[in-house]
Amino acid sequence: MSLASLNNPPAPLIDQIDHLGNPLTTARQVLTRLPDLQGMPGVFEDLVHSLSFLVSYNGSTATFNSYRREVERLLQWCWLVRGCSLEQLRRQDLESYVQFCQSPPAAWIGKKQVARFRNQQGERVRNPDWRPFVNQASKNNPDSRAGFVLSQKSLQALFAVLSTYFNYLLQEDYLRINPVALIRQKSKFLQRHAYQEPVRRISNLQWDFVLETVAAMASENPGEHERSLFVMRLLFGLYLRISELVADERSTPVMGDFHTDADGHWWLRVVGKGNKARLVTVSDDMLNALRRYRRHLGLSNLPYVGEQTPLVPKIKGRGPVTSTRQIRYLVQSCFDASYERMRANGLEDEAQELKVATVHWLRHTGISEDVKFRPKEHVKEDAGHASMATTDRYIDTEMRERHASARFKKLKPEL
Q1: Which own/partner pairs from 32-40 qualify as long-range (CB within 8 Å, at least 24 positions apart)?
Q2: 134: which strand partners?
Q3: pLDDT digits (tens, 9 = 90+) for 270-296
């Protein structure tokens, strides 16, 4: 293990999917930028096969990004920390790698999500602020490198992605074993719960403050925040995933995706996970939000058939938003402003979730509210859940009843 490798951040290896070419050519370009790795046995072959694996997922940016993250971390650990190639990995090595991911060195942890590469004078150059791991700085933890924890969800993703990755390398006759499959005691890394994990959501009070705060921001700066208000309402009111708002190789969300049926009811066509299209019910409130935003854009009150206006346009420039990072930043800015407003109103304790909430919490919150009043079959279809079991996670009636029955238990029972 190289001490220098632990004390210095590694360089990014793999660019966005639209900047990758032939795996052989791309691997040579990557190693040209990293001369210290050029003489290490197996590095070039590792990189070529890894790139071949990743480009097979060019149909979904979200899937490519999650697979790239896990593959890139593993390669950096193999080459820089372990000093070996993929072919030399065994079960014990993978266990050491998982432990490394659970507590990476401070130099490998960043404060925020940033792009790996950026354009500079027509060339793609590495972003010196990029790190393999990210621990968002918060108001309670301004030093993001302190208290880093790899969540159970992240650990599950690590095992799932790397198992698929090694199976691919086996099928390509590049490796002889899948070291992930040999880790029989995954349970020492992955927890099994005898209870259903609670859905992460914000409270109704927090959502009220978010709406009021963003509406005030839109009044003060409509050029930027009318879009913010519309996006927040889309995420909550239609339970959209962040990937369903941005343009990628699967689809480009446009205003014409809103349409009516023969009864005059409004729907939104969405292309979701697995490249599956679904129709989401548009409520009267959501329709009014759409009218407001379209008036701001100088458009007619409601979309016309086949309208190609981007659903979420760029503020600067033309065309649709193409990066989920922009949506994440927009939502985080709204959460931060709402948290500060709640604090100013003496509600700091009630505002805590806004410090850690993510975009996806709005989807969870919208579903959790609707499933209280709507038939769960309808909510399932709108949310695009593959099974009713997923929708059932949002129904917490049994938990409420269970808590209510225990609420007045006495620590000193009456005689």
Answers
A1: 33/126, 37/79, 40/79, 40/83, 40/85
A2: 110
A3: 988 767 889 999 999 999 999 999 999
Instruction: Spell out the domain ranges in the chain.
Output: 3-188, 204-401
- Measured CA to CA, the distance from residue 266 to residue 282 in angstroms comes to 5
Q: How far from the centroid of its chain's Cα atoms is residue 261's Cα?
A: 33
Question: What is the 3-state secondary structure of the chain?
Answer: CCHHHHHCCCCCCCCCHHHCCCHHHHHHHHHHHCHHHCCCCCHHHHHHHHHHHHHCCCCCHHHHHHHHHHHHHHHHHHHHHHCCCHHHCCHHHHHHHHHHHHCCCHHHEECCCCCCEEEECCEEEECCCCCCEECCCCCCCCCCCCCCCCCHHHHHHHHHHHHHHHHHHHHCCCCCCCCCCCCCCHHHCCCCCCCCCCCCCCCHHHHHHHHHHHHHHHHHCHHHHHHHHHHHHHHHHCCCCHHHCCCCCCCCCEHHHEEECCCCCEEEEEECHHHCEEEEECCHHHHHHHHHHHHHCCCCCCCCCCCCCECCECCCCCCECCCHHHHHHHHHHHHHHHHHHHHHCCCCHHHHHHHCCCHHHHHHHHHHHHCCCCCHHHHHHHHCCCCHHHHHCCCCHHHHHHHHHHCCCCCCCCC
Long-range CB pairs of 172-176, under 8 A, 24+ apart, other chains included: 172/49, 172/52, 174/45, 174/49, 174/86, 174/87, 175/86, 175/87, 176/87
In the prediction, which pLDDT does 190 show?
57
Cβ atoms of 275 and 250 closer than 8 Å: yes
Which two structure tokens, joined as six digits, stand for 325?
Answer: 């990072």
CA distance linking residue 324 with residue 16, whole number of Å: 13
Neighbours of 188 (CB within 10 A): 10
For 91-107, how does the pLDDT look when each residue is reduced to its tens digit (9 = 90+)? 888 889 988 988 899 99
Token pair of 108 as six digits = 């490998």
Structure confidence by residue, pLDDT tens digits, 137-173? 544 555 545 567 777 788 888 888 998 999 889 888 8
Q: 394: closest CA among 374, 415, 413?
A: 374
What CATH number belongs to 204-401?
Answer: 1.10.443.10
Helices 152-171 and 61-76, packing angle to 10 deg: 80
pTM: 0.62
